[in-house]
Structures are given as structure tokens and as C-alpha cells.
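Subject: Sanity check before I submit

Could someone independently write out the C-alpha cells for this chain? I want to compare against mine line by line before I put it in a report. The sequence has 324 residues.
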Amino acid sequence: MSEGDISERGLHTDLLSRRLLVVTGKGGTGKSTISAALALAAARRGKRVLVCEVSARERVSELFGKPPSGPEIRELAKNVYSVHVRPPEAMREYGIMTLRSETLYNLVFERKVVRYFLRAAPSLAEIVMLGKIAWHAEKEFDRGVHKWDLVVLDAPATGHALALLTVPRVFLSLVSDGPLAADMTWIQTLLQDPTRTQVLVASLPEEMPVNEAIELRAALCKEKLPLGPLVLNAVFQPRFTEAERTAVARGGPMLSAAADAADGHEARAQMSVQYEKVLRDAIAAQSAPGQAAQGPLLCVPQLFERQFGLNAIEKVAHALEGAL
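---
Independent answer below. Compare away.
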């Protein structure tokens, strides 16, 4: 797809005005790439962006050619920062903020028996990680203004992401009083507010990722989580006519590899067209009658890079900027 084609597919023009963008989808669909590109596109508009990663391995920092950030916030590029949100550090930060005393936290929570029961507590890891991410998005200030104009969450793959985003609802169905319940209430309000949060689902033009993306969006809709664009990544654009492919094939053994490559490319291009239609139909079906589709479909072209790093992120971000 050309940049013009991407623009024609439409993207919420105020997408980057949200406080929190969540990028999820089946593993291997390019979630980290989209997260990094969104951050770079927002930074170019003068926004200060924090990318939060929660998976075991950091990927966004690698894409920018930087070492892993770890639990400390590190700068990746101008106005782009990242942090690896991990349960132990998030738990400590949350405990100190709640108790307002590092000494008291150490006395209570650093005891071996307490740590044992905390690790066994269901969903506690998700609670503290989500709490830290929401705090960065909504409650971290610098000189009276939000420290971050945008927080991008490079979320886990489908099932784990859904579990993470539904933690507040599950918790509040069991507990209705207390400081933690109050925190879960405001976090749930943030997650369900379409003016502040949008969830983007990434897919590939292949059967399994497309089916999973459709099911995930249906589940997100059911949870009343606001849907942003559905990102169809690695879209192949047709390049060769039938006549050109026939001419190459007639070139004999010397051009057999080129003929196979051309046939393979066109087969992937046909798959891209096919699954783009499947996703468009699904978006229309998931939208309420008489209402606009829930989040447009955004097609990102397949990039042919020897090494997928900052150069590739620059290209994806440039394509996104064209749509924005």
C-alpha cells in the first residue's frame, strides 16, 4: 500500500490526542513496531511520549537501537521514552505511594512471609502493573502539567492483554471499598473513556491472526473498552501483471528464481486483499446499526528491510503521519 492508500483507509484524526493508546493482538503481528511508530509520530508533533512495555523481553528499545530500559525510564529518541513495567518494582512503587512511607513499606511488605502471600495473590501482578501505567498516563505531573502527553502501552498478546485490561472490573466485582477499590474505579474509568483511551488491535493478512483479531475486538467491545484502528500489518501491494510474470517465466532456468519470487509476491498480495475485506466486513458487523464502524482499518505496507530497526520504524511512522 502506498502512503496515499494508508491515508484513504482513514485513522482517527485525533488518535494521538488520547492519554493512553494500547496496542495488542496475536503474537508476531508487529505490536511493538506499531507502538514504536505511534510514539515516534506523536513525538514529531511535539508530544512527550512514554512507551510502557510489560512483556518479559523489551522490544521497543531494540527497535530504536538502544539497550533495554529496565524499570528506569530511559530516552530512546527526542521526546520518546520507554520503561519496562515489571511486577516487583511496580508493587514497591504502588506500596510506597499508598503508605506514603518507604520505611513503613519495607517493614510490612519486605517480610519474607508477606512476599510469599503477595506472589500467590491472584491478579496482583496485573493490578500493580496496570496501576503504574495508568498513573503515568493520568497522575504523573511535572510543574503542574502532565509529564507525558501520551502513554503507549505495548501490551501482551491477545489473551493476556484482555486479562490485564479487565482487572479493574474483575476486582470491583469482588471488592467495593477501600483504597485499592478506589484506584481500580478510576483506572476502569480511564480505560473505558474513548476520549482518553483507545485500544488498537494488530493483525497480519493471514487466517489465524485475522480470526484472532476479530474475536479480540468482539471481546473488547463486550468489556466496553474503546476500540481504535484495527491495524493490518505487512500488507503486500501488487507489483507484477500477469503478462510480466509470464515473460519472466519464459526466461528459462536463469530466471526461475525470479519467476518464483514474483509468483510468491503476487500470492501474498492477493491474500492481503482477501483478508482486508474480511476485516472490513467484521468491523462493519461489530458496529451498532446506524453507527460508524468501530475504529477504521489501517493498512501498513510490508517493509523489505535487511535489518528491522530504527530505519523501518521511521518508515512506518512516516506512513502514519500521512494518515494523521
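---
OP: Matches mine. For the report I'm noting this point. The chain has one domain: 10-234+306-323.
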